[in-house]
């Protein structure tokens, strides 16, 4: 995946802000009461969800990634960069969206909350982004997998860190942030229990996905993810990879090839047709759209559990 880097002078950003363009991104989604005291910019849906749940009525949340937009490909506009400078805090996940990482590094906002610092990222193999030969951080060069929100336990760890950061940045509402964080963490742990119980006894432990986003999830629940593509959902698999997956499907009793809502499912459906397998949706929750099987993180994760139980032959 090639990502163009835009270096915008701060003078230009200031000019945009002075014209009033920095108040809201054209492709941002308002996510809390418009009169919220604490203005938070979230990089994409999983960060937006945390900010909404933890901030409640005290926080005004906007997101840099509009509904239906594939977050890996996001390139920020001048208006969005100005918005960052005008906000109280940014909540993002370093390594997923290079253009966002760069813009937040350059932004003058006081509170920068990197979810990657709030839990431990791992290399799940093949979890590299192709940035066209550009130089990047040590973490990216080692191919650390950013898809931590699909593991409810790690997501809960991030939630706790976000709650603490909100309480520090906006101490007048610290008690409410802590209360909301505790409630969210409890619910995430309950979701973890649901997945553990639901996937404990299955006919197969192998599932096929469109791209390699379920590494942490598979590790948590003793499953094996086989991705058609790598971490980049738009990359094309080689013919050898397709042949390998056909063979593995027969050997491991795989019944279903999963595709997702924000990228084309053409390759997944072709593989399924050629191998005589079913298709279904397993949503990596990188965004919520009208085609999502639920309107928030918990609803979509519940739908994912239902789909996996069917595909894996849960008993």
Tally the beta strands.
Answer: 8
**What is the global morphology?**
globular
Biggest beta sheet attributes: 4 strands, parallel
Low-pLDDT parts are 1-35, 127-142
**Gap between N and C termini:** 40 Å
Fraction of residues in β-strands: 5-15%
Give average pLDDT, whole number. Answer: 83
Radius of gyration: 20 Å
Q: What percentage of residues falls in helices of 4 or more residues? A: 40-55%
Total DSSP helices: 11
- Pattern of helices and strands: HEHEHEHEHHHEHEHEHEH
Strand order of the largest sheet: 2-1-3-4
Counting helices, strands and paired strands, the structural category is alpha/beta
Q: Could you describe the 3D structure shown?
A:
This protein has 315 residues and is of the alpha/beta class. The chain is 42% helix and 11% strand. It has eleven helices and eight strands. The protein has helices at residues 10-18, 45-55, 78-86, 98-106, 138-141, 152-169, 174-198, 215-220, 239-252, 266-275, 297-312; strands spanning 38-42, 59-63, 89-92, 111-114, 206-209, 224-227, 256-259, 278-281. Helix 6 (152-169) packs antiparallel against helix 7 (174-198). The longest helix has 25 residues, at 174-198. The protein is globular and about 60 Å long. It starts with 9 loop residues before the first helix and ends with a helix. The model is unreliable at 1-35 and 127-142 (pLDDT under 50).
């Amino acid at each position: 995946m090639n990502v163009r880097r835009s270096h915008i002078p701060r003078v230009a950003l200031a000019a945009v802000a002075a014209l009033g363009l920095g108040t809201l991104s054209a492709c941002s989604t308002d996510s809390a009461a418009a009169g919220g005291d604490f203005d938070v910019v979230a990089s994409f849906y999983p960060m937006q969800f945390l900010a909404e749940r933890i901030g409640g009525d005290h926080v005004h949340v906007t997101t840099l990634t509009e509904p239906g937009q594939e977050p890996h490909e996001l390139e920020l506009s001048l208006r969005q960069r100005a918005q960052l400078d005008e906000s109280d805090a940014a909540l993002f996940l370093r390594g997923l969206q290079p253009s966002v990482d760069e813009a937040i590094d350059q932004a003058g906002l006081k509170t920068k909350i990197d979810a990657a610092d709030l839990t431990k990222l791992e290399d799940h193999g093949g979890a590299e982004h192709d940035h066209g030969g550009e130089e990047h951080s040590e973490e990216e060069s080692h191919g650390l997998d950013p898809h931590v929100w699909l593991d409810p336990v790690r997501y809960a760890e991030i939630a706790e860190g976000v709650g603490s950061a909100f309480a520090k940045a906006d101490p007048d509402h610290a008690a409410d942030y802590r209360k909301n964080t505790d409630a969210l963490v409890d619910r995430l742990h309950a979701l973890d229990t649901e997945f553990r119980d639901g996937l404990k006894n299955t006919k197969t432990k192998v599932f096929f996905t469109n791209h390699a986003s379920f590494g942490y999830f598979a590790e948590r629940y003793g499953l094996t993810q086989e991705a058609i593509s790598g971490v980049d959902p738009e990359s094309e698999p080689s013919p050898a990879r397709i042949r390998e997956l056909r063979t593995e499907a027969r050997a491991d009793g795989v019944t279903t090839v999963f595709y997702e809502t924000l990228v084309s499912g053409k390759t997944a459906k072709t593989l399924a047709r050629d191998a005589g397998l079913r298709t279904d949706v397993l949503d990596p929750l990188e965004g919520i759209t009208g085609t999502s099987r639920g309107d928030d993180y918990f609803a979509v994760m519940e739908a994912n559990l239902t789909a996996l139980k069917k595909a894996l032959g849960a008993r």
